[in-house]
Protein 1
Amino acid sequence: MLRSIFRTVTPVVSTFRTASSSLAGRRICTRFVTPVRLYSSESVDKNEITTRVIDVIKAFDKTAASKEVSPQTAFHKDLGLDSLDTVELLVAIEEEFDIEIPDKVADELKSVGETVEYIASNPEAH
Amino acid sequence: MVKRLSGLQREVLHLYRTSIRIAYSKPVDNRPRFFSFIHEEFGKYKDLSRKDFTTIEHLLRVGKKKVEMYSKPELKNIH
């Protein structure tokens, strides 16, 4: 997704440059070029990730809503999810943060804390 | 207790993950249908013995073909 944004950004920059240099010269041109960044620039902080992950889990139909979800909660042991449910939950979390967790990593994620840790380490998460 | 998954089990999980991701690529209103379809398809063979390799391999092949078909962007809804 990020790559597609970059692809669209480059032509925009170049059109700005040609348009502005013909209109008003260099100063405006540099003003256009530097700050073009269309995605959120700050990486999300851990507490926010945790609450969002927990929200996704609570919204997931197979988890009992009454259950307390903390970073220590394990998908299989505490939430009673089988392997397929875990996969489904992780894809839901992927959707929420707009990332794709590779298979190898996803198979190892067994608890809320581990998932939060991974998302925090992923620079593309937002 | 860390359960090691066999290669075949991981393949099934991979197929399931791909199917769910495809369901997310469909229009929001129709997603529940795709989800219940996926649950149904995988649920059919829930009680299959994990030593029944040939059957699982066959189902994986059939499943991959189906995933390929359902992943087409023209396909927006199922009944």
Protein 2
Amino acid sequence: MLQRSTSSSHHQMTSRRDANNEDDDYDDIPLQHQRPFGTGLHKKPIAFVSASSLSTVTQTQPTATKPTTGASIADLYLSMVLPDDTATTTTSRSKSAPPSTTPTTDTTTTTTPSESTPSTITSQPTISEPSQLCPICNLPLPPSDDPAGLAAHNASLAHQLCLPYSPPPSALDRTRMGLTYLSAHGWDPDARRGLGAEEQGIQFPLKPRAREERLGLGAPAPARKSKEQGKNGEEAKQGKLLDAKKVRKMAVEDRKRREEIREELFGDGRLEKYLGVGRVVQSAPGSRAGERRRWLGT
Amino acid sequence: MADLSKNLKRSSTDREGSQDTKRLKTDGNGVDAMSAKANPYLAHLNEDGSDGAADRGFKSPLDKLERRNTTADQALKAEDSDINPWTGQPHSQQYFRILKTRRDLPVSKQRQEFLDLYHASQILVFVGETGSGKTTQIPQYVLYDELPHLTGKLIACTQPRRVAAMSVAQRVADELDVKLGEEVGYSIRFENRTSPKTLLKYMTDGQLLREAMHDHDMSRYGCIILDEAHERTLATDILMALLKQITDRRKDLKIIVMSATLDAEKFKTYFNAPQLTVPGRTHPVEIFYTPEPERDYVEAAVRTVLQIHASEPKGDILLFLTGEEEIEDACRRISLEVDEMIRESDAGPMAVYPLYGTLPPHQQQRIFDKAPEPFRKGGRPGRKCIVATNIAETSLTIDGIVYVVDPGFSKQKIYNPRTRVESLLVSPISKASAQQRAGRAGRTRPGKCFRLYTESAFKKELIEQTYPEILRSNLANTVLELKKLGVEDLVHFDLMDPPAPETMMRALEELNYLACLDDDGELTTLGHLASEFPLDPALAVMLISSPEFYCSNEILSVTSLLSVPQIWVRPNNARKRADEMKQQFAHPDGDHLTLLNAYHAYKDAEQRGEDLKKWCHEHFLSYRHLSSADNVRAQLKRIMETHGIELVSTPYQNKEYYVNIRRALLAGFFMQVAMRESANSKVYKTVKDDQLVMIHPSTVLTAAYDWVVYNEFVLTTKQYVRTVTNIRPEWLLEIAPHYYDLDTFEKGEIKSALTRITEKVRRRQAMKGGK
């Protein structure tokens, strides 16, 4: 197990490096000169780096935008996961940061439309602090003169999740005359309100609950019902079962019915085909269950 | 007193009365336009108010009093005087006897405190537990302070139940030593027992609401008391919202909201009014729960009653059950078991009385009978057991109850606007109800309450407060009333518990389909007319459109019969004979027509001069309900005549006689139609709402018709439709084309059936056109 986990971390690291390299390629080489995706992959040796060199790699990245965006992304994640804490930290940071960087931030934000277009980002390490936070989701807002960015922000999952819960609209038939009347007098079917001076009334009609006749209060209704039914049913059945001819007939009918079901299920051989011939279906789940039990025990 | 007759109000009412009798004789000729003067609802407008304060021809202790500035001492003196301050007659012996017991009531001690608060504020919330005497005494305290004979402004006291309004009015008339219907009267739907002399009027809350429709400011009243507000009936809720508005316009109108439960905080904040609480006379009540839930609560209740009878000391028992059938069943079982106990183990005697709303009043009265004496001196004590619905929870005071058995259920109305089904379901009560029930045991001495559920069920399964009726009802009638009351904005109408928007929408749409409201929700002419009838909108619309089908006389009878409880009597010991008798009146096309046949037979017997009670008994019909249907019919007829609705009939010999009636039913009930699912099936599907239903077994229908119109939906363990009549689907397309617009239907059997019928009708017409 341990070994597996380390190897997987190696894979992750290499893949990340690849991604970085790809980014580099993408940034530096014009499109027409780029080689098609995947060509020469086998020639490029995959470099495995030890854990300590990871930081040097990221530090020695030629693009300075990466670490800053990474930090901001970390902030974003924090603000999602711990909304209260991050709200304070991000505000404190934005409070402490601006004095030194305000002029540059302003200029960069005005010049660069948004940080989602990394190709235009210069090596200035200052654009990561947005000037505004969204009041709903506490995330940095794109500048107000970018309607597309704002729309994208509003449509983002993080923003949508932070919106106050809006219940689905009422299922009432909108063409009903009664509803027309009530809404004409200011009642909103989707507002989840009742009638009354302050619309404080009940929202839904009371439900009638049918009761077993003469059953005492607090007595379990279904249990008694099944018991009694069972008793009655048994009595009725006993009356029938006394007749041997009927019993035989019932048995024949029963068999026929079972046959029919079997025919329907297995008759055309589709099921066997689906399951595959000769496969033992039963043993596998059993062994797996045993395995799981062993796991749980340790 | 003589001067009162000069009162314009009285003369106008008299005139109206004589016109009525004339009209009744001429039968349908009295269509002449009814002026505002002749309208009893508007009678107060004719008063100029100057003649009210004139002296009444006798000296009264009240003469020195100043309106709304009296003290309890002054009132007590007036009550103690030898002559009746209201009539000038000497007080009877009985009066003083009752007066003594009245002075012992808990409210009596706080009369001055009440008056002080009453003077200080326009709205007052009064909390007094059952038995504190608030329903009978507070209106009288107000009477001695308002002095309505000076201003002509009456005092109204509303009650949720008709029976309560009648019986309390009688009691208060006795207490004041006046005749019922004169100084003290009552007014309930289809029955008005008041006179121009009336100063204090008990009425149902629904009746006051109907009066408000013609008098938006309630200007004939000086003080309105809403009693039993804790019950939160539909009408009381509407009245509260309405009165809250009116008090802004009419600063001289006083409102008292009376509640029997201690959670009056809600009323207090709603009205922003001071509160006065009168403690009831209560003793501690020990509460017991069952360790396990019960399988059959009726069975458990019966056993508990017998256990109490066998092992507990003297004291009466009150058992709460849910409905008539269940109560009668339990009564029978208890009586049988007690008889056996007496034979086997020398138990004391026990009298068992049922108590529910539809019980005839004289039988309701029996619950106040004394418990039976022991069989021999020193023997085991006798007791009475009352098996009641939740009537006995707050509105009735029965002394001597020491044991309460509470299974935790009551029948509650619930309405689902999505399926348009209003049903009475046996449902768990609320915690507040359970406490109220337990409280019934501690009226005379420390008592015990046996709850037939576990303590955890009490904590977990019961809601805190029972839902007010307005959240559990179809609001079509209410919306029509509110529109007529001039409420424009139904959304922001300040109700204490506003209903669900969907319920309101359904009501608006139903009224729209009935053409009572236009598409903007404004009252139409038909809507105005329909609101004049104290009926559900569907019934009212059916009645109004019946002349178009040449059968308004018959539809009037059917409407009246549908407005009273079931006229069929089916005693448990004679079910078969009762069914046979019903079969005599049966019409193959349906229950509505069968009802009509029974009514015609009843009127026939009346004409022959038969003893109607006996006749009804022999034919298993309820005399009480039939005669009240007859009374309702007379009242509705008067309203129809007032508004110029013709009373016509198709000749009975005409073969269209019953067809016309069946078609006329659809004019109001086109939204209550069901189609049979498939041939040989007993299951029907309701149109548009797609509810699967069966026809109630009480029907006379033998053939399984494909299309039926039904009067009501009954939801028990199964879904039933009751009072059903066979119709033809072509009529639906013809009578209610806007509702049966095929584009509005969802795909299904009903739509395809209706499409086929449309095609058929079109082909037939094309054939006719071709010829």
Protein 3
Amino acid sequence: MSIEFALPESIANQTGLTRMMAEQVMRALSRRYDEQEHQRPWEYINVIWPFIQQIEAADLKRSLSKNGGNGAKPAEKKQGTGNLRMIHMIETLSWGDAGIYLSTPSSALAGAAINAVGTPEQKERFLKRFTEGAPKWGAMAMTEPHAGSDTSNIRTTARLDPETNEWVLNGEKIFVTSGSLAGKESNGIIVVWATLDRSLGRAGMRPFVVEANTPGMTIAKLEEKMGIRASDTAAIVFQDCRIPYDNILGSPELVAPDATEGKGFKGAMKTFDASRPYVAASAVGIARAAFEFTRDTLAKEGIVIPTAPPYHTLSAMQRDLIHMEVELKAAWLLTVRSAAQLDAGQPNSLEASMAKVKAGKVVTLITQKCVEMLGPLGYSRELLVEKWMRDAKINDIYEGTGQINTLIVARRILGYTRNELK
Amino acid sequence: MYSFDMTDEQRMLTDAVNRYATRTLRQVYRQAEAAGEVPDAAISAGWELGLLPASIPEALGGFGDYARLTGALYAEELGYGDMAAALHLLSPNLVAIPLLLGGTEAQQQQYLPLFCDAAFPKATAAFLEPALFFDPENLQTTARRAGDAYILDGRKTMVINAAEAEWLLVYANEEGQTQAFLLPAPTPGLHIGKRDHWMGLHALKTYGVELAGVHVPAQNRIGGEQGIAVQQVLNSSRIALSALAIGLARGAYDYARDYAKERMAFGEPIAHRQSIAFMLADMAIEIDAARLLTWEAAWKLDAGKEATHDAYLAAQYAADMALKVTDGAVQVLGGHGYIREHPVELWLRNGRGIAAMLGAVIV
């Protein structure tokens, strides 16, 4: 163990390739899929799919080995690079285009949940499809019209029908990223959070896997958004949607209501340990796109950042650039740390939330500042800067708003429960 | 790889320095502030930790290798203890580390063993100038070559422990380049002026220094033909300043957090309120961010990579962060934070100094 900041060569090489994709494929499509909301960027999807299949295959293999041969003891934890690899890829793809990146065919959050708490049988049944055939998507359905950050308040129910041994889902989910792609447009999967017993709060919540086009599941609406318009954001209605008993993730046993954390909810929290660094990485990618464009544009006008200038010699523009540059670096390093911890098998919930808070703030600040600094050019739809500002904002909102993640950090550092610090 | 865990050796070192910071420095810092000096015993105890000799190779009398990252680790702990004492304790570094970085072999052999003695070395540097637009690459203090000597003229400020110093490393402008000259003291023309008075750091003895036609032998210019690369010295200063800032901020954050959990208002601890808890959360995030920036810059420099800009950014960030965090700590304590019975006001005053202290500390 030592303190090191060396990017493994294989990740550097991969990032080089990703960069080419971002530059040549994604940037060329950026404006079109921003304007043609709800159309799918197949030019990108078809190019990236073979790479994703490889990653999915490796993830599946690793995840199955963790279960051991027959779901017994997990294998020894050893230092991997999976999450580090992933944040570099996400950062670079988001530098290309965040909306198109979000359209990447992959098991996504559904895969994360299944990998975190699924049985070997579930992993095979639900995730193998992402290693073969046509492009597919996974999605996670948590948010409901009346319950956003307040996830323990969801109302979608799961009821066991003892006659058929099936779960019956009823309720409405909104803001499901890739919901239509996963639930209707491909042979994908959606992990749906539902409650077995509302009186138990979090303890009663469980994730269930619903396969695409299961009767009773309807894609009710595709949202129209401020940014990341290339990304599919769906509302999904479940009406007596029947799924096999074995589609529940984690134990169906319910623990007492006074237990502070239900097992199902812990499962969700575990997926956030990975998904928050991923969102932070995406935020950093967008911020870097805006920063680099602004820096390079100003450089053409002779406004450059010297290496180590005395502060009094700098113009306001230069100070803004330096401020953005270091904030970007800070957000990225926090993100890298949280991903590296996850790879090392260390707890990272605190650090993942720290990264998410910082990156969400930084991308908002940088993209808004870049629009301002570039004047009419920044505001113009001729360039992508205004789009990046619109794309940026979601990063301070989804996977836990900046406020929710600050609350998580605050509780951790103070050692407070959610009753002590609301 | 990316990894954020100290080596066992670094862990042992930081633990030892942390013990010194909490058991020695935190016991004396308030009284030292009132008395205007850090007690010699506290400095001797710090010198016994062997931080500087551990950076000097065995062949030159020390027992280790120079690493900025390790420096950042121990400087953070010292900053956590007390900024004034840390700056005092690290003042010999101001001569030894530039010698390590840029001295000729002969200079290293002649001077570095002096920094491996049991007694605290009386050596310091004169870098900062009392100028509104101070620029380390365009100093107002000048060096003119005259035969086999240099003649130095100019004014310096914030020269730590100048009155007792036996050696002063003076930075001066030689034909547009910043160079460093090792001066024995006393020397004709070298005038140690009055003690400086700062907003904070009252326990740190610093002085204005005037150089009026001071002659120094040519071989006392650090480095060979090329002289010294000032950015290299400044990079080590930026790492040191950042690390001290992080330690200072961490101390203020710890204090404010503990206070907020104990201070009752409206029937419950004020930390139960998001307005307080969120401030503390932001402080924790900013401290970690500054530390990562500093570690990365130090790691890059240790690996021989060009990282002047990284070190510059880290230092900018850390200075801003320290001010924000120490100010936040005063704010969390409210009226009590403004009263000198609590240390947070002192830490805010110390924190303000960091941005103005480039070159006053090196690891």
Protein 4
Amino acid sequence: MDCVVTGGNVKVLAKAVHSLSRIGDELYVEPQEDGLALRSVNSSRSAYACFLFSPQVLKFCVCTNSTKQHKLSVQSVFRSLATLEKTVEKCHIKLDEQKSRLTFTLHCKHGLVKTHNLSFQDSESLQAVFDKDSSANIFRAQPRLLVDTVVHFPPSLEEITLSVSDDRMWFKNHVEEDAEPSKAMLTELCLSSDEFDHFSVQTQNSITFCLKELRGLLLFAESTGLPISIHFDEPGSPVVLSVTDSVLDGNFVLATLSDENNTHKRNSRSCTQPLPPPDDFMNDDMDSYLIAMDTSIVPEPSVTASAPLARAESSKHSSVNHRTQQHSEDENETDETDHTAGPPNKKFCSLFFGSVLPPPSQMSTQPITTQEVLASDSEEETQLE
Amino acid sequence: MKFRGKIIDVACLNHFTRKSHICSKTLTKTCVLRLTPDNLFFILSEKVANGGVSMWCELAQANFFDEYQMEGVTQEDNEICLEVAPENLARALKTLQNAKALKVKLTKKHCPCLTIPTLSTVSRVVMHDVPVDVIPRKLWHEFKEPHMPNFDVSIYLPPLKTLKNVVDRMKNLSNFLVLEANMSGEMNLKIETDLVSVTTHFKDLGNPPWGEDGSQRDSDAMAQARLDVRRLQQFLMGQQVNPTKALCNLVHQRLVHLILLHEDVSLQYFIPTVA
């Protein structure tokens, strides 16, 4: 293999390497007849990404017949994107099989030449099996839209849940089951179909996948301005995010959390869980969401000793609260339906070897306990005074 | 217990974001949001072991909210007291930077939450559920407005930006500084290390009139307080907008009480001295 990348294409190549580095530490380089393929897979094999550059990008690409893949760490070559953009005029990539060296020569301004000799390892061909065109749900959006969406989620967030209905798409942060619910901040964002270039939904589904890789792709898509396509079917089967141009093709295949409960439901043809109604922002009824969190009643048995007056009062309170609670249930409908469906189980399926991790134990669906008493002691105290 | 508020005026929104940032920039893990029919309070009271800084920030709701409805725990105690993580709140409010409307409501989801839906300029709704802890009434007494200390010296502060510059420079030299002031409008910031002593003098700052002052204090005598520079920085960090009035009350060798008055917001900050 011997090829030259010039001008702006160096930046594209560098961005691609950077976004691949978000996935795994190693880069798989495979010269092909129709160009150069750069691939990466993460250590748990739940995320795979591939960029295919056509020969137009790689001028004078002389591909040897070798279809071997080479595994190496390239990120160091393109460490600083900012300086790269300004200084590098062309990049020459040459494979020397005798010496087992892949040489990147960066020709910079003022005749500066930087040469990186990287050692590599031969490896088996890495290829994820996916068929994005047969996906039930296909979307295409400008990178800006997704960048603006992702920015609302904290950098520390690992997974994101994406739900679709006929004309809307929701993004939610995925909270792990074992995380303490009272600590987790939830963020939810809704996009309407007209913000997308293409929006087609066949099955209303929701999938959960890693945000890190999506961020990696966005990095690339934003700099190249290429629209991102999203293809997915159902929880547990991979989501494919892709960017396509006349000269390059990038696909990110990410595992989604398999959802035991949902799979069962699907068998009974009722997997479409009702999605939350769009928030009618400007007009809403105060009563529709005000909640009763009673700090005033004391349902503890220890109270029996106190005056009957207190009991009477507390029962009165609870009936009032019950009424308001109903309102709050309306408001929290979205939340509860989610609970009954059960949050997706946190088990990623391996994409490449068909090996599905052992079926997760049924997770405890946590029905919302009504009338949770917060700060129950306060009333008791005031009454004792 | 019910609470809901709505801001649809962009100016008010920016204003609110800025003010909330003052509180969310603090380094503590939790702060208390107290809601009354007329005001919102952000309250901070640090354990003495962690520095013992406390803050009291009062916002008149009418100046921010277009709609504001609340119902407290009972008719007599018409208040709501919530504990929030400033970090979460800051993140939720970050969304506001290009928003055109905001709602805040108290909801019960997986736990009690402040649900903050914002409407962005492109009519996209982003909703944050910030988990809160409802503070029981028996603990409310911890979050009452702090008493004005029986100060030795009260003085107007120089422009906060100037003060910040000086303090930031001093931080490079020492972790502690001595703030001293007297009743003749003089204030000094001093640091002393083995290698260097630096003093910045401010003059003619003026002393606010606090009614008849029975004290026989010599107007040139300095009251001193030795402070952890970081605490002072923390206070100055949140103050990008110059307040209408900024003043400082000093209790000699004990406490510094800083007060900032904006038209609609008042902020009090207490920094204990270190030995």
